[in-house]
Amino acid sequence: MFKVISAAKSWDGEIDLLIMGKNTADVAQNAAKIKDLSSIIRLDGNHLEHLLAEDAAKIVEMLSDSYQVILAAHSWFSRNFLPRVAAILNVSLITDVLKIENNNVYTRSIYAGNVHAKIHSKDPIQLLTIHTSLFDACAKDGGDAKVIKKRFTSTNESDKLEVRENK
């Protein structure tokens, strides 16, 4: 997370951190102390304890109108839900970014890391996963971000209770 925040500083703008899950109050308060963050967007609920890719994608979609860049660490979870976000938003997902340059130009590895490719994106929203080993970590304290709590209703049908009368 600290290295993704450093990568986000490549753009001149505010940096927000999204926290999704169950009992996230303490995590959000601790994250608010991270330097360079403007706000912490916190979604909390019992249905988010075992976060599904469908729910994560829907949450990012709901929040995407406010952002031009969405970053995540290149992890198994981001590789699961971000392709869904890309499809919903009709933008390209640029994965495993090694270097961020000006004007939406990125370097990423291909062919099992044997070749580096430069990619220029013209999408209205830049959706990226960051190869964190090549970025320095940001300062873990010295920040004073505001925590914003938002609500989300699960997209998982098993989380919804519907009562029907038999006729």
The CATH architecture assignment turns out to be 3-Layer(aba) Sandwich
Q: Could you name the CATH class?
A: Alpha Beta
Radius of gyration: 17 Å
CATH homologous superfamily classification: HUPs
Largest sheet, if any?
5 strands, mixed
Order of helices and strands: HEHEHEHEEEEE
The number of domains = 1
Q: Number of DSSP strands?
A: 8
Mean pLDDT: 90
CATH topology (level 3) name: Rossmann fold
Q: Total number of helical segments? A: 4
How would you classify the helix and strand content by structural class? Answer: alpha/beta
Structure commentary:
The protein is an alpha/beta fold. It has one domain: 3-Layer(aba) Sandwich (Rossmann fold). The protein is 23% helix and 29% strand. The protein contains 4 helices and 8 strands, in the order H-E-H-E-H-E-H-E-E-E-E-E. It has helices at 2-8, 25-31, 53-63, 76-89, and strands spanning 16-21, 39-44, 69-73, 93-101, 105-110, 115-120, 126-130, 146-150. The strands form 2 sheets. Strands 3-7-4-5-6 form a 5-stranded mixed β-sheet. A hairpin with a 4-residue loop joins strand 5 and strand 6 (115-120). Helix 3 packs across helix 4. It is globular and about 40 Å long. The relative contact order is 0.24.
Name some characteristics of this structure:
five-stranded mixed sheet, single chain, three-stranded parallel sheet, Rossmann fold, 29% strand, 167 residues, alpha/beta
